[in-house]
Amino acid sequence: MQEYRMLIGGEWVNSTTTETFADINPATLETLALLQLAGYKDVDRAVEAAWKGFKVWSETPPPKRAEVLFKAARLLEERKEDLAVLMTKEMGKILPEARGDVQEAIDIAYYAAGEGRRMFGETSSSELRDKFCMTVLRPLGVVGLITPWNFPVAIPAWKVLPALMAGNAVVLKPASDTPLSAIKFVETLLEAGLPPGTINLVTGAGSTVGAALVKHPGVRAISFTGSLETGKWIMGECAKSMKRVSLELGGKNPVIVMDDADLELALEGVLWGAFGTTGQRCTATSRLILHEGVREEFSSRLLEKTEKLKVGDGLLPETEVGPVINRAQLEKIESYVRIGQEEGAKLLSGGKRANSELPGYFFEPTIFTDVKPEMRIAREEIFGPVLSIITVSGFEEALEVANNTAYGLSSAIYTKDISKAFRAVEKLECGITYINAPTIGAEVHLPFGGVKGTGNGFREAGPEAIREFTEVKAVYIDYSGKLQKAQIDTSAPAVQERGTEQ
Fold first, then answer.
1. Does the annotation count 248 as an active-site position?
2. Is 282 annotated as catalytic?
């Protein structure tokens, strides 16, 4: 059994705890590798190493930093298939989706590298003569990045690469369910030429390693993707030291299907949005808000397509829905199915563990109908292949139901009415809206994130990516050769003189 080490200061090292944990294939329950179980001392070592790396990296001109990221992008392209196969074994998503995960990392690598010659500030005129004003972007220092298991290469890349491009040093804590993918990603960055200490990786439980990173006085910022409950705790802890924190905390994403929609297009979109990645996306479609005029036809056709989905090992070409990540998640999904039935929703399809030749964590694609907006299955994030159908009588009711949630990440509407489409863009309370497309499918050159319980105002990717990891500094250059006092009323003596003459 291969045992992997942590990366601290450019060296792969064992943890000070001398303990390890297993990385499990969720389809076969095979142990893939053993990983270091880090402790508080290991986080201290990583942060100390990162500050040493920061001194070198922050003084490297951004275009030179970009050269490293461009090389990393090319290496990721060469290793795409190997990384995808590893990801499917480690996380469970089907191989085509795993390839897409790696492609996102490639895309953000190229995008972030392109920012090397676009680290723009602003210039402004001064209120005084012979004075110049501008802003510049400065790195934060050492940043702690805590990433989830559902996109084990893409999300680390979304955080790591802009943070590095901005000149920061990084301590990465990947999810304990998918550490191997993160390790292989980091190995690629090292090969691309990152200086020692610029990136560090510690593995272990969020309750210990993640908490130590959040609380560490040497960490200037935390970027976290995960649950709302954990995000609230992180925000509270970071507030104690005025540490910057950016959060992406999930969603309860609606697709609205109006009575004038292209139903076949909508069917494909709902199917993909609800059951792609086995529903384990923060942008997954978990609520279908269906106009009563198409309810019967659409539900019938959706049921037919859903029951044909092939559940199994993500490495098999015929598989369309892989396993969920672990036993705890499987049991959580089962509990929500019971809750939905107890609340009075009708189980239309699925609702139980899937029969499989493999011993892994497989769950049937599940559809509830007769769901009311106040039900827990319509309000709480399940993070599995469970779709709730809510029937509405019109467009305004659809918007009201869509916004009736604590979250606000992604949304979609299927309609041929351009007026309804643009009104949905205005009225839906979320960070992302798709028109005639599912709730999943974000592109790296647009900002990603949400409102309300989904986030705290920051966005990942797109033009906001660098801003997440930089401070804006205002600069004043006075070349008058004399003391000038901004905001001091220099007209006062003239007023007095006029008063004297009178």
1. yes
2. yes
